[in-house]
Specification:
Radius of gyration: 24 Å
Number of domains: 3
Organism: Nicotiana attenuata
Pathway: Isoprenoid biosynthesis; isopentenyl diphosphate biosynthesis via mevalonate pathway; isopentenyl diphosphate from (R)-mevalonate: step 2/3
Protein name: phosphomevalonate kinase
Number of helices: 18
Number of strands: 13
Largest sheet: 9 strands, mixed
Keywords: ATP-binding, Kinase, Lipid biosynthesis, Lipid metabolism, Nucleotide-binding, Steroid biosynthesis, Steroid metabolism, Transferase
CATH topology of the largest domain: Ribosomal Protein S5, domain 2
CATH class of the largest domain: Alpha Beta
GO cellular component, one term: peroxisome
Length: about 500
């Protein structure tokens, strides 16, 4: 009866800061880094005392952090109460569990509610696992004396344990030292847990999902429910209503995204202790969710690369706060910068969409131009345009580069005005070096910027040269590529799949 669901991490390529306000759009790419949630019954049959007490047992296990937490779930109030290991409380998973169960109560008739009660009385056994790409393992690689290369990352076991702080290694209260890579682990984790639970409880059926379904070409009502519950759980857990692009991409995959109006979550935000949770969830399910999402993915023969410079992370909330203070103190100048940033974002989106259309129109010509340009620096690309159809492709490639340079300029300008390092000097040097290399179309800082990761989009086979150059500059190229899929139902425990793959490769 185990249900395994997964949801991807993200890279916000355009729309940093702007995506916080409607109607500004952001291009968000989902990745091959996925969070998994495994849900199964805790007991083979119902404990007799459970009927009388109206409590269900819930076990949450996070193997990578060596954490296990036991909860009691009140079947009347649908609230979790930790009974052990309260040190490691995970508000994102807790809200995901409570809200998913409340969604079942809010949507089921009496017969289904009786079945739900019996299912819950068998307890819930929930395991969460995040791909290595969500976390930084530079320290382990350097400690092993290995080079900063993707091959070194690939040598780590799947779902590697997260290191513990050295000064706490003998204490009772060990806390995992979680250095993240900025792929949106909390959004992916929340979405995976919500999806697995909603499917397990019978609220949605994710078995027949197709890529088309996730982008609204068929009935996407199942995913819409996952989205509403995951978005609500994530916002309430983090204590604020964010833009939601990370949860939206975790559910639906790569997309062009315009945020929802924050008012749709007012009932969840303002709910008092006395308000029944089913009432709160019923309200958010019926609210007018006005976010916009349009299917988007990189054009063919282009590769997304992410690099970890190892210069420490940045606090996105504090950087967003600084930008908002600058907007309030200098509304005229900030509005002009945002207008130009928005125009640059739109231009980049237009050039990439046009390249997709040109690839559809004549793939052979497109493939020929991309492969030729992958071996040259950008200033030599026009030399490969010997006929109008080739010149059209090169024109769009150069237009995309120009748009990205403009976006970077105004992001730096905004950072200087707000007093924060959106594109720090060290990143500027790295990005300029990257964009001057053969076959590199774009390079930038994703999302809110800072010292987290950098991204590049490369043409054809040029990505290997970029990762080598990054390694020589002390930048670790991560094992992350674009995967346009959103939330998915998996066949089995991902650890079993990884072990099988490892055994097969040894036999080969």
């Amino acid at each position: 009866m185990a249900v395994v669901a997964s949801a991807p991490g993200k890279v916000l390529m355009t729309g940093g800061y702007l995506v916080l306000e409607r109607p500004n759009a952001g291009i968000v790419l989902s990745t091959n880094a996925r969070f998994y949630a495994i849900v199964k019954p805790l007991y083979e049959e119902i404990k007799p005392e459970s009927w009388a007490w109206a409590w269900a047992d819930v076990k949450l296990t996070s193997p990578q952090m060596a954490r296990e937490t036991m909860y009691k779930l009140s079947l009347k109030h649908l609230k979790l109460q930790a009974v052990s290991s309260s040190e490691s409380r995970n508000p994102f998973v807790e809200h995901a569990v409570e809200y998913a169960i409340a969604a079942a109560h809010a949507t089921f008739d009496k017969d289904k509610k009786d079945m739900l009660q019996k299912l819950l009385l068998r307890g819930l056994d929930i395991t969460i696992l995040g791909c290595n790409e969500f976390y930084s393992y530079r320290n382990q690689i350097e400690a092993r004396g290995l080079p900063l290369t993707p091959e070194s990352l690939a040598s780590l076991p799947p779902f590697t344990s997260i290191t513990f702080n050295a000064d706490d290694s003998h204490g009772e209260n060990q806390k995992p030292e979680v250095a993240k890579t900025g792929l949106g682990s909390s959004a992916a984790m929340t979405t995976a847990v919500v999806a697995a639970l909603l499917h397990y409880l019978g609220v949605v059926n994710l078995s027949s999902l197709t890529e088309d379904q996730s982008h609204g070409r068929k009935d996407a009502s199942n995913l819409d429910i996952v989205h509403v519950i995951a978005q609500t759980a994530h916002c309430i857990a983090q204590g604020k209503v964010g833009s939601g692009f990370d949860v939206s991409s975790a559910v639906y995959g790569s997309q062009r995204y315009v945020r929802f109006s924050p008012e749709v979550l007012s009932s969840a935000q303002n709910a008092g202790m006395a308000t029944p949770l089913t009432e709160v969830i019923d309200d958010v399910l019926k609210a007018k969710w006005d976010h916009e999402r349009t299917k988007f993915s990189l054009p063919p023969l282009m590769t997304l690369l992410l690099g970890e410079p190892g210069s420490g992370g940045s606090s996105t909330p504090s950087m967003v706060g600084a930008v908002k203070r600058w907007q309030n103190s200098d509304p005229q100048s900030s509005l002009e910068t945002w207008r130009k940033l928005s125009a640059g974002n739109s231009a980049l989106e237009m050039h990439l969409n046009t390249l997709c259309k040109l690839a559809e129109r004549n793939y052979n010509v497109y493939e020929c131009v991309i492969n030729a340009c992958s071996l040259l620096t950008a200033e030599k690309w026009p030399e490969r345009a010997n006929e109008p159809s080739q010149a059209e492709i090169v024109k769009e490639l150069l237009g995309a580069r120009e748009a990205m340079l403009g976006i970077r300029y105004y992001m730096r300008k905004m950072g200087e005005a707000a007093g924060i390092p959106i594109e720090p000097e060290s990143q500027t040097h790295l990005l300029d070096t990257t964009m001057s290399m053969e076959g590199v179309l774009l390079a930038g800082v994703p999302g809110a910027g800072g010292f987290d990761a950098v991204f590049a989009v490369t043409l054809g086979v040029s990505s290997k040269n970029v990762t080598k150059t990054w390694s020589s500059l002390n930048v670790l190229a991560m094992l992350v590529t674009e995967d346009p899929r959103g939330v998915s139902l998996e066949d089995n425990d991902p650890r079993a799949k990884e072990i099988t793959a490892a055994v097969s490769s040894i036999q080969l």
